[in-house]
Amino acid sequence: MDKLLDRIVITKPDDWHVHFRDGEMLDAVIFDTVKQFSRAIIMPNLADAIKTTKMAENYRSKILDSFARLKKNNQIPQENTFTPLMTIYLTDDTKPEEVLSAHSSGFIFAFKLYPAASTTNSSAGVTNLFGNCRKVLEKLQYVGMPLLIHAELPDKNIDIFDRERFFIDRILISLRRDFPDIKLVFEHVSTKEGVDFVMEDTGPIAATVTPQHLIYNRNSLFSGGLNPHFYCLPILKAEEHRQAILKAVFSGSKRFFLGTDSAPHNRSLKENRCGCAGCYNAYNAMALYASVFEANNSIDKLEAFASFNGPDFYGLPRNRDFLVLYRKENIIPDMLEIGKIQLVPLGAGSVIHWNI
Ligand code: NCD
Ligand code: ZN
């Protein structure tokens, strides 16, 4: 990493957890990801969930078409490349053979576990992992394909701030015991207990970390009023949890890497009597990460977190091009308007000191 006073040059990063949606929203948000990242793990929780290799293939074509339009309109440099890494949504009915066809497709890189009713578009999620998905888990372990986990137990009797902890105790510990070699990604880790599990686990495991869980604690949800643009799942936690995440990321452990969980919802669906969960952070994700790394005297750890640990875990080559970050006042806009779509970016109205 080239480290000058007002500029950092890092190997081009990847985003290991992003929601692109489809249709107009896909066209509206893809630019923000491809301007910063070479590859991204594309979440499968569309309204019509991506449950098969065939569906993933169709969705991938839509993403590549949308990317090609950006180039055609000269919105991004012609030499820019972008590879969507597709995933499949695990359900109670997923067939073990689906793992084999996904694995041999060459464009699918993981399966995603959403416990039913845990988050946006999770109604098709898994109701009983060990009862219904054992054969699929065996196959994932056998072919070495990662299982990406939304690690929350969505039980109405469990406090929302404890859902990650309960998921670890009731599901994750048994999952690791029964499948000692399955590759796991603990997505958007949000608690001290999550961090500890990832640090101490004896099998292949990693965690993605979002900008919001690094920068904010749950006070942001309520400071001066109710702030729907800080509402995501897993929900922001107390400061001690944020501190544990910072410590893990800056420890230099290779088990923690960048995954924005950028999850766009139209402004009207966020500022609503029942606002959707999800923060739109793709707009300036790398600048946000650089700011929080610098604020913690750890800017030298940014490149491994953003550009090395992810591909190393997934067994993919590191990128060979570079991204330049400049120190420059960066006022985050209150709102982005792209055609009919309005998005409020994470940190709207605040000032950070990095830019790409
Ligand atoms: C995500 C979404 O909107 O798709 N929402 C969120 O709060 N993170 C789903 C998810 O990753 O939980
Ligand atoms: Zn997500």
Which terms summarize this structure?
4-stranded antiparallel sheet; 13 helices; 356 residues; binds N-carbamoyl-L-aspartate; alpha/beta; TIM Barrel; 18% strand
Report on this structure.
There is one protein chain. Helix 1 (about 25-35) packs across helix 2 (about 55-70), helix 3 runs parallel beside helix 5 and helix 7 (about 190-200) runs parallel beside helix 10 (about 240-250). This protein is an alpha/beta fold. The longest helix has 20 residues, at about 55-70. It has a single domain (about 1-355), classed as Metal-dependent hydrolases (TIM Barrel, Alpha-Beta Barrel). Strand 7 (about 145-150), helix 6 and strand 8 form a beta-alpha-beta unit. The chain starts with a strand and ends with a strand. It has helices at about 25-35, 55-70, 95-105, 130, 135-145, 165-180, 190-200, 210-215, 220, 240-250, 265-270, 285-295, 300-315, and strands spanning about 1-5, 5-10, 15-20, 40, 85-90, 110-115, 145-150, 185, 205-210, 255-260, 320-330, 335-340, 340-345, 350-355. The strands form 3 sheets. The chain has an 8-stranded parallel beta sheet with strand order 3-4-5-6-7-8-9-10. A 4-stranded antiparallel beta sheet has the order 1-2-11-14.
